[in-house]
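Q: I'm building a small set of examples for a reading group on sequence design. Run inverse folding on the following structure and report the sequence directly after it, with nothing in between.
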């Protein structure tokens, strides 16, 4: 199972943290936040500064409160408490302003964090819709989902909580340090020397913990991918009674996640108590030295100055302990951001086509013109002319491989004229489905050409190309919604009458009308409330409603019983009438009436002809049809 790619980080030194905040993926996150919420951030910054200044000013006022208002009252016979009362009110108002500012900026950052997360997820989804099928064939769905959930949530945590906390801590450190030097330079120097030891320990421990946070994100994606795979394969697991094996494998994945998470969070959790205790030691040492200064009257130290300084010293030590907690958030956010933008930076589906598909009409001279309304005719709009959509398909010396070093198709040559039915048969892995994947350009060929009505399909806009194709896949997929909405998915402009007509054509009308709410019956969980055959019938109706000139039926009746298949085949024959149709089938009885049957083996077309012609040849088709070995 594939891991999340290159999203992990190996360390969390200050240099790496600064780099993660100022370059690469995290810079893109910060840029996104600034672009959409710069006004909010200015208000937040102002709130942080106001809160920090209010806190420091309140602490500094302690010196005045003690030396000017409290000590002079000691020993007085009739002390006047009114000045003290006014001073306390001023301090209370100052702290109230700080509290309002802190509440306001935290409330705003919740909005910024959730809003940024909404934008990132929307960008992720928009980018995902532009990625080629190749990406989803090579990346586990569970791992992709982990990017949407776990990795984006690390960014929300960083934006909404850690970022304002870091700015607040920096503002507190700066304002507190300045205030400490104003009160006492000698004690401030002592504090800085002691704090340097706290910083050194924080750096050491955060570097160790940072090694494991990237591994944690990768392993979390792997666990999610495994769970998703096992959930989708529950029937197979139970049929072969592999429950114990899957439980064991899950325990292995889960244990690996536990180990890396334990290493990451275990070491990280040492930081807070360690720095807190070192801060307390710092506090005691400074208190002893400051008391000696005050008792001896050194450096102008007074009781009020000492009390005020000690409060500031406590405030100065606290950010280092809290900052150590935020370093973990930065590391996790950096790992999450790299995974998010790894998906964002995936190469989108390339589309250099310029030929569009539009509704056309003929004038009195038989010349085609673009029509504002649908006339029943479609045309390819080229720069110099309009070509009527007929459905002629030609493969000319086509070579293809999913990887450059692993070729799948070799020198494929074939044609299909309007209204012809072309069938592909052969062993599993012979390349049958691959040919249809090339026709709708899920993948692009390495060599040769595919022409559609004489036009190289590389020159046709992919949306226009795919709009001209109706596809029924072996693995059906239905969306949450009503049955009629799922049929309408083939053509969003279809009326209810169009959808019902398509269902009748696919012989799905009968079972739909027997559903509790008929066509308005809600389908959930990819159609879990329907049988596999019913799901297939709806998928066929969905293709029918689009009324395409070219049909691709990839094992379209594979999940339908024999009796239902006979009914569906009649509908399919009506649907295929006048349309170019490519059929992939293991049941050779369904392709006997094909105009041409292509027999593929290991990427080569080894036989071609009608059903009768191929039987007469007594080659590979004869062997597949009769089950007899060729002598």
């Amino acid at each position: 199972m594939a891991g999340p790619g290159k999203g992990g980080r190996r360390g969390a030194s200050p240099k790496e943290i600064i780099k993660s905040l100022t370059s690469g993926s995290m810079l893109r996150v910060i840029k996104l936040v600034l672009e959409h919420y710069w006004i909010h951030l200015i208000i937040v910054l102002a709130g942080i500064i106001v809160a920090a200044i209010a806190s420091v000013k309140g602490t500094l006022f302690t010196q005045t409160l003690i030396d000017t208002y409290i000590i002079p009252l000691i020993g007085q016979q009739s002390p006047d408490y009114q000045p003290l009362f006014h001073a306390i009110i001023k301090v209370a108002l100052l702290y109230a302003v700080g509290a309002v500012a802190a509440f306001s900026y935290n409330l705003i950052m919740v909005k910024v964090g959730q809003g940024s997360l909404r934008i990132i997820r929307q960008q992720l989804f928009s980018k995902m819709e532009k990625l080629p099928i190749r990406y989803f064939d090579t990346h586990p769905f569970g791992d992709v989902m982990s990017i949407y959930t776990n990795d984006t949530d690390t960014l929300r945590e960083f934006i909404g909580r850690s970022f304002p906390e870091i700015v607040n801590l920096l503002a507190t450190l700066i304002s507190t340090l300045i205030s400490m030097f104003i009160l006492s330079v000698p004690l401030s120097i002592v504090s800085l020397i002691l704090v340097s030891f706290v910083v050194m320990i924080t750096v050491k421990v955060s570097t160790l913990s940072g090694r494991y946070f990237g591994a944690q994100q990768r392993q979390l994606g792997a666990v999610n991918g495994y769970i998703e795979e096992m959930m989708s394969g529950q029937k197979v697991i139970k049929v072969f009674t592999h429950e114990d094996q899957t439980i064991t494998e899950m325990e292995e994945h889960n244990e690996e996640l536990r180990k890396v998470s334990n290493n990451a969070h275990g070491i990280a959790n040492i930081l807070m108590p360690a720095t807190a205790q070192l801060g307390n030691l710092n506090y005691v040492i400074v208190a002893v030295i400051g008391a000696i200064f005050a008792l001896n009257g050194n450096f102008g130290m007074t009781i009020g100055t000492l009390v005020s300084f000690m409060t500031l010293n406590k405030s100065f030590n606290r950010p280092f302990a809290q900052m150590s907690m935020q370093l973990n958030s930065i590391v996790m956010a950096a790992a999450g951001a790299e995974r998010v933008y790894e998906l964002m930076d995936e190469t989108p589906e390339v589309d250099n086509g310029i030929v569009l598909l539009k509704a056309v009409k003929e004038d009195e001279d038989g010349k085609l013109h673009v029509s504002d309304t649908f006339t029943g005719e479609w045309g390819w709009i080229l720069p110099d002319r309009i070509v009527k959509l007929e459905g002629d398909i030609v493969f000319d010396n086509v070579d293809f491989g999913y990887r450059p070093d692993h070729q799948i198709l070799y020198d494929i040559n074939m044609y299909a004229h309007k209204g012809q039915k072309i069938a592909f048969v052969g062993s599993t892995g012979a390349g049958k489905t691959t040919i249809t994947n090339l026709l709708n350009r899920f993948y692009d060929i390495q060599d040769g050409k595919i022409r559609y009505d004489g036009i190289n399909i590389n020159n046709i806009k992919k949306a226009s190309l795919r709009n001209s194709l109706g596809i029924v896949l072996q693995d059906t997929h239905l969306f949450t919604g009503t049955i009629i909405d799922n049929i309408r998915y083939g053509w969003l402009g279809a009326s209810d009458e169009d959808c019902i007509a398509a269902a009748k054509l696919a012989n799905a009308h009968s079972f739909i009308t027997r559903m509790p709410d008929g066509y308005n019956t809600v389908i959930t969980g990819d159609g879990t409330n329907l049988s596999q055959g019913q799901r297939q019938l709806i998928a066929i109706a969905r293709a029918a409603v689009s009324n395409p000139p070219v049909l691709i039926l990839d094992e379209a009746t594979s999940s339908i019983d024999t009796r239902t298949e006979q009914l569906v085949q009649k509908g399919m024959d009506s649907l295929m009438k006048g349309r170019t149709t490519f059929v992939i089938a293991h049941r050779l009885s369904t392709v006997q009436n094909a105009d041409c049957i292509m027999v593929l083996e290991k990427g080569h077309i080894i036989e071609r002809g009608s059903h009768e012609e191929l039987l007469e040849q007594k080659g590979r088709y004869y062997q597949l049809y009769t089950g007899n070995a060729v002598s």
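The two ends are 44 Å apart (CA to CA).
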